[in-house]
Design goal:
By secondary structure, this protein is an alpha/beta fold. The chain has helices at residues 30-45, 89-98, 115-118, and strands spanning 6-11, 14-19, 51-56, 80-82, 85-87, 104-108, 125-128. The strands form two sheets. Strands 1-2-3-6-7 form a five-stranded mixed sheet, with helices on one face. Strand 4 and strand 5 (85-87) form a beta hairpin. The chain is globular. The protein starts with 5 loop residues before the first strand and ends in a 6-residue tail after the last strand.
Length: 134
Amino acid sequence: MAFSEIDYTVTDGVATVTLKRPERLNAFTFTMRGELIDAFDRSDADDEVRAVVVTGAGRAFCAGADLSGGGKTFGHGKGELIDGYPRDGGGTVALRIAASLKPVIAAVNGPAVGVGATMTLPMDVCWSAFSGPT
């Protein structure tokens, strides 16, 4: 799978996942959801990867859900059942991160709102370089 809303690189045993929508403060989309899950599947399958770092491009980690779709933002009909319970996109990402076989580090480089904050909760380490508004 080619990624359009994240970057995934592996260097010296570290997989770096970068949310890549800086013009929208890395607002979360259904496409990003699928790409994040795929990135964690890749890191788990790669014996060279020893840890995963998740960060955001630009001045934000993640501004939460991309609300530009208006009323259709959460009604795209692609909800999933996991363990018999319906999960939203952010919930499926958080559960996938929690199931990661590798340690996961959140490198929070700016605001983390809504799903942006939620996805950091199952990560093993959360490091913030954000010093507030400038």
